[in-house]
Write a sequence for this structure.
């Protein structure tokens, strides 16, 4: 992986904030950076290729789209951790799944179109071999979601 | 949750589906996406502007892979906050640039934590320092530092794709 240049950092800092909603969004970004559309597109393709970008695009408010979210904590017997984690990964609504330190060793977020869908998934996971306990920590209020890293 | 669901047309949902795919890195990306939906670029841009105004879209832009850009440590920090202090604590923690997510959540028996912050830093020690500072500012002493040991999955949600 190559080092980020000053230009790359300026480009990524700007693009983390916004992607213009117009016919030539990359030309608009280029103008803000004092360069041209072709340069911006070339650098972005390279940075994507090199793995710096998780995603460029649109991020939605799940509640506005009618989805409900929860964070689920599981206590799983160590020998069953892998199969349980892999079973959770198969659900499209399970978007983040982490093994963590502490009493509860497996944590995942779950987005569901409705309550019955959520309950069904939770019941299935609770019934997996090795799942000894489950906490369903429903989101009551979102104060912040903003994954931005200022690159210097 | 207090946020109301927005009623979306079938066309809106189709637009959400194409927008959540990989964004084309070409001169006229919205033209490409509009063609996939089967509408003109003008109509597509108009509909996306509406979705943004209706707050269905929270951000258009890039998200970086944090490890690759040097933020290698992160911790999910769960706080036990007295109810009357919750709003203020959540606002102040959200204002900190190292906090990417801040949610109030329901508690459970034996699990009293009601406020969750995701903290990103360059080291575990720096995560501890930031959490100490956030806690001190609010007089909060009960927290659980839930460091990740392994990432099993991290994806973006695909909306309106249930069978």
């Amino acid at each position: 992986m190559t080092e980020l240049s000053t230009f790359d950092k300026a480009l990524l800092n700007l693009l983390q904030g916004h992607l213009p909603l117009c016919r030539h969004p990359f030309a608009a970004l280029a103008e803000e950076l004092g360069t041209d559309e072709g340069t911006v597109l070339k650098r972005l393709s390279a940075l994507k290729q090199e793995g710096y970008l998780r995603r460029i695009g649109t991020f939605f408010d799940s509640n506005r789209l009618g989805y409900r979210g929860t964070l689920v904590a599981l206590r799983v017997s160590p020998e069953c951790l892998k199969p349980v984690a892999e079973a959770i990964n198969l659900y499209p609504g399970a978007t983040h799944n982490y093994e963590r330190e502490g009493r509860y060793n497996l944590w995942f977020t779950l987005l569901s179109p409705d309550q019955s869908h959520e309950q069904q998934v939770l019941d299935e996971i609770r019934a997996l071999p090795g799942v000894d306990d489950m906490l369903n920590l429903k989101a009551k209020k979102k104060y912040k979601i903003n994954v931005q890293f200022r690159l210097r | 949750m207090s946020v109301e669901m927005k009623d979306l047309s079938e066309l809106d949902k189709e637009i959400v589906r194409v927008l959540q795919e990989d964004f084309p890195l070409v001169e006229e990306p919205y033209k490409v996406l509009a063609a996939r939906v089967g509408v003109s670029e003008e109509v597509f841009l108009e509909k996306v502007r509406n979705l943004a105004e209706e707050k269905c879209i929270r951000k258009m832009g890039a998200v970086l892979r944090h490890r690759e850009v040097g933020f290698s440590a992160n911790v999910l920090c769960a706080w036990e906050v007295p109810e009357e202090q919750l709003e203020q604590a959540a606002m102040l923690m959200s204002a900190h640039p190292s906090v990417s997510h801040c949610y109030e959540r329901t508690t459970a028996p034996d699990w009293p934590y009601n406020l969750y912050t995701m903290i990103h830093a360059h080291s575990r020690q720096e995560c501890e320092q930031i959490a100490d500072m956030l806690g001190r500012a609010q007089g909060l002493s009960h927290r659980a530092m839930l460091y990740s040991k392994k990432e099993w999955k991290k994806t973006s949600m695909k909306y309106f794709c249930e069978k």
